[in-house]
Design a protein that fits this description.
This protein has 248 residues and is an all-alpha fold. It contains 14 helices and no strands. The protein binds iron/sulfur cluster.
């Protein structure tokens, strides 16, 4: 099967299994963009607390946040974890938004994707995952967001190398799927759901997995190299044979 067809098949299988995920929670594009920056290295619950605090104080708009002294911004981001770093990053994003786009987040929705992405990547503290999250979930641009769940899933399905770069993984989706922001939005959300619920790092729950039939990891025999052993545990468990690789 051609790569694009396979990626579409995986998308449909995940959608059938989990349904629409309704990402990304946020009342405005700007709130989503701020959330994408605050989400670095913390739980979504902590991000929600920080966003709620900004909202309650009437600060969740580009103008209000931009005019807030950086010490006060830092204080208000406390719930988001690593708040000092995040305040600097958020301030850098706001500098960019006002310098290049007159403080209007909507302009990220109508500009050229490649240009906007390069602009965002030049903002200190904004890496590829945050830039793509801002553009996809905040601005509705057709760019694919990649993360650790994506890397693990594609490697296990045999579609990418285990240590493939962010750029290589993103390029796989971008090159083989139509540039459909709604699908990219849903696809990434489904991969995260699948990675949390089933395709977990240490002990994946392969039995009953909607992708089991096409999964190279799960199909590997029990004996063999360490990776194949782990895959084997799942199949051995499914077949009731726990002795083949010592799985408990
Ligand atoms: S079969 Fe197992 S390893 Fe493969 S995608 Fe499903 S949970 Fe992940």
């Amino acid at each position: 099967m051609e790569v694009g067809e396979r990626l579409l098949e995986i998308y449909r299988q995940l959608l059938d299994a989990y349904g629409p995920q309704g990402w990304w929670p946020g009342e405005t594009p700007f709130e989503v963009m701020v959330g994408a920056i605050l989400a670095q290295n913390t739980s979504w619950r902590n991000v929600e607390r920080a966003l709620e605090r900004l909202k309650t104080e009437g600060l969740l708009s580009p103008g209000a946040l931009y005019t807030l002294p950086v010490e006060e911004l830092t204080e208000r981001l406390r719930p988001a974890g690593t708040y000092r770093v995040k305040a600097v990053r958020l301030r850098a994003f706001l500098d960019y938004l006002f310098r290049v786009h007159a403080g209007d987040p909507q302009r990220l929705a109508i500009g050229d994707l490649k240009t906007l992405r390069n602009e965002l990547l030049a903002v200190p503290g904004i890496g590829p995952e945050t830039a793509d999250s801002i553009l996809l979930y905040g601005a509705g641009q057709p760019t694919f967001v990649v993360d650790g769940y994506t890397a693990r899933l594609l490697a296990r399905l045999g579609l990418a190398q285990e240590k493939a770069s962010y750029q290589a993984l993103r390029a796989l989706f971008m090159a083989h799927l139509p540039p459909d922001a709604a699908m990219f939005n849903e696809y990434h959300a489904l991969i995260v759901r699948h990675g949390k619920e089933r395709c977990r790092k240490r002990v994946p729950r392969c039995e009953g997995c909607p992708l089991l039939g096409g999964c190279a990891f799960a199909a590997a025999p029990c004996p063999g190299d360490p990776l194949a052993m782990r895959a084997g545990q799942r199949l051995c468990r499914a077949s009731g044979d726990l002795s083949a690789d010592g799985a408990q």
